[in-house]
Design goal:
Elements: H1 4-11, H2 18-23, E1 28-32, E2 42-47, E3 50-56, E4 62-66, E5 80-82, E6 85-87, E7 94-95, E8 101-103, E9 121-122, E10 124-127, E11 130-133, E12 145-146, H3 147-150, E13 153-161, H4 168-174, H5 180-185, H6 192-195, E14 201-207, E15 210-217, E16 227-234, E17 238-244, E18 251-262, E19 265-280, E20 288-292, E21 295-296, E22 302-303, H7 308-318, H8 335-352, E23 369-370, E24 375-376, H9 384-387
Parallel strand pairs: 12-23, 13-20
Antiparallel strand pairs: 1-11, 2-3, 3-4, 4-9, 5-6, 6-7, 7-8, 10-11, 13-19, 14-15, 15-16, 16-17, 16-24, 17-18, 18-19, 21-22
Bound molecules: FE2/S2 (inorganic) cluster (FES) and fe (ii) ion.
């Protein structure tokens, strides 16, 4: 349980809010790059409480600009793209990806009006079929080259879920809450055999990228080794995970981004990568994107419950638009999320004091591929020292 004021500090994401300022120090996912095509080069994006428009101009440059035109506020989502920017549909003002206003066609020749205009614009980068934006103070840090986005031998695809009606932190607390697995997901047919009579211990280890969550299952038979399953929460709003294709047995590595749309909405986007020497997925290329809906019922207020993700969505949304943590009752099994809140608060305070928060890659160096130490011995993904024997 935390005081209501602290709950506000940890959850609110708008400009000038403590957590909003922290989240602005990290590149945030805005879309799958394949969502911006020649036919549909403009996409409305609401991110951290800001209404924006992402576009790809005819030269292939990506931009993210304030939705409302600096002239008289018409939406740029209905504009058109040209070789060097986006033009408002109302009176034709044109902006480039830096927010410079480069044409005001209704003004007399020689007008300098456009030179005084600084339209909201944020840098955009593309990696692994995803587009990321940076909304924080300059200079922008380097975009981390997470393994799932940077690996090239295999198949990559993106899943984008319809927006959740809840605050981003509920999604992230779930990532350090391993005890829900049996109760929320244990009835799914493919998980049931694994869960019957199952017991395990949980550890949470602070690491350079966030929090490593580790489950250890005791030996099921005498002479067997305990089994480890570990994957990290990448601070502040991403989960790195692995699953297994039930038919082929292949490992599917994924990054689950929880993009804070605003205080009470979150968009989950998942980048997946299945290693395979015979396939090639360039890190700077597009990846197929699948849009997924999970609501049921006439009022779309019910949930499909036939997938792990949908079951999680039910839990996160029914905690409330912004869960009131002053009314909760935590137990010992909740120690992971207590650690996350502490870390979050420390990093919020660090940013407020003018510091650089954890896991930010300095602007002046290209991020190497960040290979994460993901282990799932149950599905044959071993610890480095046991991989040789696998
Ligand atoms: S409102 Fe956009 S050009 Fe006038
Ligand atoms: Fe879950």
């Amino acid at each position: 349980m935390i005081p209501r004021e602290d709950n506000e500090i940890l959850t609110r994401v708008g400009p000038g809010t403590p957590a909003g300022e922290l989240l602005r120090r990290y590149w945030q996912p805005i879309a799958a790059s394949a969502e911006l095509t020649e036919e549909t080069p403009i996409l409305k994006v609401r991110l951290l409480g800001e209404d924006l428009v992402a576009y790809r101009d005819l030269s292939g440059t990506y931009g993210l600009v304030g939705e409302q035109c600096s002239h008289r506020k018409a939406s740029l989502a209905f504009g058109r793209v040209e070789e060097d920017g986006i033009r408002c549909a109302y009176h034709g003002w044109k902006y480039d990806c830096t927010g410079a206003c480069i044409e005001t066609p209704a003004e007399p020749e020689g007008s300098t009006l456009k030179d005084s205009i600084h339209h909201t614009a944020y840098p955009v980068e593309k990696l692994g079929g995803m587009l990321f934006a940076y909304l924080g103070p300059a200079p922008a840090p380097a975009l981390p080259r997470w393994d799932v986005l940077a690996w090239e031998h295999g198949r990559r695809w993106i899943r984008k879920f319809e927006p959740l009606r809840c605050n981003w932190l509920q999604c992230m607390e779930n990532s350090v809450d391993p005890s829900h697995l049996y109760w929320l997901h244990g009835d799914l047919a493919h998980l049931k055999p694994m869960m019957d009579g199952y017991e395990e211990t949980h550890e949470f280890l602070e690491c350079e990228h966030g929090i490593m969550k580790r489950r250890t299952t005791p030996p099921q038979k005498p002479g067997e080794e305990p089994q480890v399953d570990q994957h990290p929460l990448l601070f502040p709003n991403t989960l790195r995970h692995v699953s297994q294709d039930r038919e082929t047995g292949r490992h599917r590595h994924n990054l689950q981004f929880r993009m804070p749309i605003d205080d009470t909405h979150t968009c989950v986007m998942v980048a997946n990568f299945e290693p395979n020497e015979n396939e090639h997925a360039p890190a700077d290329g597009d990846a197929t994107v699948e849009h997924i809906e999970f609501r049921t019922g006439e009022n779309r207020d019910g949930y499909r419950m036939d997938m792990v993700a949908f079951q999680d969505f039910m839990a996160w949304e029914t905690q409330g638009p912004i869960m009131d943590r002053s009314q909760e009752h935590l137990g010992l099994a909740d120690k992971g999320l207590v650690m996350l809140r502490r870390l979050l608060r420390e990093q919020i305070d660090l940013v407020a004091a003018g510091g650089t928060p954890m896991a930010v890659v300095a602007a002046d160096r290209q991020s190497p591929i960040i290979e994460l130490d993901v282990i799932n011995e149950r599905m044959g993904l071993m610890k480095p020292e046991r991989r040789g024997a696998a």
